[in-house]
Amino acid sequence: MEYKQQVQVEQNSLQCQNNSEDTDTRQERRSANYKPNIWKYDFLQSLSSKYDEEQYRRVTEKLREEVKSIFVEAVDLLAKLKLVDSVIKLGLGSYFEEEIKQSLDIIAASFKNQNPNVEENLYVTALRFKLLRLHGYEVSQGVFNGFFDGTFDRSKCTDVRGLIELFEASHLAYEGEATLEDAKAFSARILSGINCSAIESDLAKHVVHVLELPSHWRVLWFDVKWHINTYENDKQTNRHLLALAKVNFNTVQATLQKDLRDVSRWWRNLGIIENLSFTRDRLVESFLCTVGLVFEPKYSSFRKWLTKVIIMILIIDDVYDVYGSLHELQQFTKGVSRWDTGEVQELPECMKICFQALYDITNEMALEMRREKYGSKALPHLKKVWAEFCKAMFMEARWFNEGYTPSLQEYLSNAWVSSSGTVISVHSFFSLMTELETEEISNFLEKNQDLVYNISLIIRLCNDLGTSVAEQERGDAASSVVCYMREENISEEVARNHINNLIKKTWKKINGHCFTKSTTLQLLVNINTNMARVVHNLYQHGDGFGVQDRHENKKQILTLLVEPFKLDLPEFSF
């Protein structure tokens, strides 16, 4: 529906002034002073690529055959480990699922047949542990006992690559795995103390990269280009593997550009943002979040739907945080809970526009699913998560209006819902039902409530760490950082350290649910877990949604969505 045609707005309603005479309506609306969108429509429509997936299909198939032969040639344990690790880091895992499974079965068996008299290698042990646990194989922290006797033996842990893998493996710990907790502290201390100028430059970059954020907390696709550049500098990298990674990156990027052009046309035709001066116009960042959830070309429809959902989350978040009075927000919340446009007719024009957009987008999404047999099941769930999200947002608005600062525990009992994790998870589930119609996933949401809860906590806590300073300066509602500062009467630094420790503990709980051998379940689990990874990426250097022109944010968007690799392909005869 095109709101440009639907909504007749008077001149002064562009600022969304409320003409009602309710006593609690503020005379001046608050402002977060968000800057205008920097990614213009004409620029997004100009994005194009010659690396069409169909056009490069024959080259891709030929390169895949060449890489399959490398799996055959990789006979010894170390060769298999390095190959599987490389294929995954280069974003090629979906091309070689069977080969990876066969290799991991052999690698897992090597644990059982290991000669106890052979001295262990830290790099091999840690890499093997990491790959097996990531893919749902049972593997104990006890595999590190050869390096650990109450404390890790520094004399057995001198290899920098081994220490990197030990650090990576330690982030896959479950609750109660004390050895892995010690491994994390030990490897972090040693790696942080390395004089990077004294080791080879690529290895030094790897040390810095992993200490900045472990790979388990990173979005795989956001890191692929970094790994391709790193492998390109390694003379031992197979040229066919590297060529396939570059072709795959370029063809995926071409699909993402088309997706982005499509959603940017939808966003312009929707025509609501010019009437919402208080909110963030962040189409590209919203789309990038969906790429972080799932990047493969065949999930274009998923990305387009979820982009619309994330845009609405941002707008509604700003309605509650910035624009609405408490009375207006109560009415808006009631309208969403009852899914009734009649409940919002007395609200300011811009709030009616927001509600109508949410109403139409959600109903349209359910209608599309109905054509695929799931609409009747989806709509009640979609309406429910939006209602719960708005109720949680209203609770925060009420606390702010009353000048009340909750305890951290009380704050988080509400904030995990206001984080929007459940909204994204439920929409993701029903968006994928047409792809994954199996009995195995029919009760996924019910069985994985703890996973979604803990991921939602990560979303909230990372968001708070990235935005707390700016929110305090604006006088916004208290974040988890501020709640804990006031509850314990401590400094901001101590409070932020506590929140970081909560994030680490929560990841251990997520680890208890996110590793499985089932490829069908793994897609859904990965998409949910990727929500946590996306927010680490978004808020690593500050407010990734509010501040568009930060160097790191712009560079990442250009790297992933604009700049392809220059290809120097091996010659093939077809």
Automatic annotation (TrEMBL):
Ranges for domain Terpene synthase N-terminal: 38-211
Domain of life: Eukaryota
Cofactor: Mg(2+)
Organism, scientific name: Populus alba x Populus x berolinensis
Biased amino acid composition, Polar residues: 1-20
Protein name as annotated: Alpha-farnesene synthase-like
Keyword set includes rRNA processing: no
A Pfam family annotated for this UniProt entry: Terpene_synth
Region feature Disordered, mapped onto this chain: 1-31
Residue ranges occupied by any Terpene synthase metal-binding domain in the UniProt entry: 269-509
Record GO terms (molecular function): magnesium ion binding; terpene synthase activity
Keywords on record: Lyase, Magnesium, Metal-binding
InterPro entries: Isoprenoid_synthase_dom_sf, Terpene_cyclase-like_1_C, Terpene_cyclase_plant_C1, Terpene_synth_N, Terpene_synth_N_sf, Terpene_synthase-like, Terpene_synthase_metal-bd, Terpenoid_cyclase/PrenylTrfase
Xref: SUPFAM superfamilies: Terpenoid cyclases/Protein prenyltransferases, Terpenoid synthases
